[in-house]
Amino acid sequence: MGGGEEAEKVGKIVKTGASAADTVIGVDLALKDCAKNDYFCTALDIIGTLASATGMVLGNIPKTKGLTTYTGSITVCYRTVRIYCQKYGTFWGCTAATAGLVKEGAQNFIKYKVPTDK
């Protein structure tokens, strides 16, 4: 009696909630990094947060739902680089890690076709 539809609604609510929580966490991290004058990590936090918030919006629009894979990947990449920067504290190490992740992300983006309207 509508079990599949209900499960889909629950999944959508959970995903939206996770994206909203990640957005709040990202804003908190950005404010903390900015207070420490760590502008590189602040920028990483802002980009990751924007990607997460964008994914939350796109996930609720049927035609753009497939793009959430990309926004989620961007969020994970930037959060990973931020953790690396916080742990090792080297600007050039962070830059190299960021460049590697951007290159890998671009290759994955090119490999998979972006959904289009037909």
Fold and architecture overview:
The chain has 118 residues and is mainly alpha-helical. It has one domain. It contains 4 helices and no strands. The model has no long low-confidence stretch (mean pLDDT 76).
SS field, number of helical segments:
4
Beta-strand residue percentage: under 5%
**Residue-averaged pLDDT, rounded?**
76
Number of strands: 0
Low-confidence stretches: none
Instruction: Give the total of domains.
Output: 1
N- to C-terminal distance: 33 Å
| Rg on CA atoms, Å | 16 Å
Could you estimate the helical fraction of the residues in percent? over 70%
Please state the overall shape, judged from the principal axes of the Cα atoms: globular
Question: Main sheet?
Answer: none
Order of helices and strands: HHHH
The secondary structure category is: mainly alpha
Question: Can you summarize this structure?
Answer:
The chain is mainly α. It has one domain (8-111).
Attribute tags:
mainly alpha, about 80% helix, about 120 residues, single chain, globular
What is this structure's SSE topology?
Layout: H1 3-35, H2 39-58, H3 68-88, H4 91-111
Helix pairs in contact: 1-2, 2-3, 3-4
